[in-house]
Write a structure and sequence with these properties.
200 residues; alpha+beta; 4-stranded antiparallel beta sheet; 8 strands
């Protein structure tokens, strides 16, 4: 295992919570994944480049987003502790990424390349099943997200954000949450005020 126990432990604990791993499988995880620290505002991936890594967030927060022609930011996903992030199509098809990924906080990730992931599947088929479930969950989350964007009110989208990311409400600037919900920061402030009034 090339990684230290400290850097790999959160990832091993994550996999163990899904399916217990043998010592040999833990060694493989340690050999295939590598730790990396992204400083706040540093890019993990830029639009137009190929997404080369599948990233597990150990500590911190990343966002996946797109900037429209008029300069508006559209945040599709946040990834904080114990979650995964990538441009799925770019990673698997080796196509130019449609999205950007950057760090909203100093963020420690464990990342794996496409070739190492395929090698992991071959040497330990259990990971083929694990990652199939991860990708199914990712696909379902993205479908739910699309449904929210086309059919939910702004207040319902904010409630969905709170349900999906309960740990991020007080960690992220209002402008980031507003970009996820698809409103201006001022409108988000009014939504929060209305919700506070309803609760009091």
């Amino acid at each position: 295992m090339k990684n230290s126990q400290k850097s790999i432990r959160p990832l091993l604990d994550y996999f163990d919570s899904l399916i217990p791993l043998s010592e040999e499988e833990k060694e493989l995880v340690g050999a295939k994944f590598s730790p990396h620290l992204y400083l706040k505002r540093q890019f993990v991936l830029q639009h137009g480049n190929v997404c080369k890594t599948f990233n597990f967030v150990v500590r911190g927060c990343l966002r996946l987003y797109k900037v429209s022609d008029d300069g508006t930011y559209h945040v599709l996903q946040f990834a904080n502790e114990n979650s995964w992030i990538l441009d799925l199509t770019s990673f698997h098809k080796k196509k130019q990424a449609l999205f950007n990924i950057d760090a909203l906080e100093d963020t420690h990730v464990m990342r794996i390349s496409y070739d190492d992931l395929i090698d992991l599947y071959i040497k330990a088929p259990k990971f083929d099943r694990i990652f199939r479930v991860l990708l199914e969950n990712h696909f379902m989350q993205q479908q739910e997200r699309m449904a929210q964007l086309v059919s939910f009110t702004a207040e319902e989208r904010y409630e969905a954000f709170l349900e999906t990311y309960p740990d991020l409400q007080n960690r992220l600037p209002q402008v980031q949450i507003a970009a996820y919900i698809g409103v201006t920061p001022e409108f988000l402030s009014r939504i929060r005020s209305r919700m506070t009034e309803k609760e009091s």
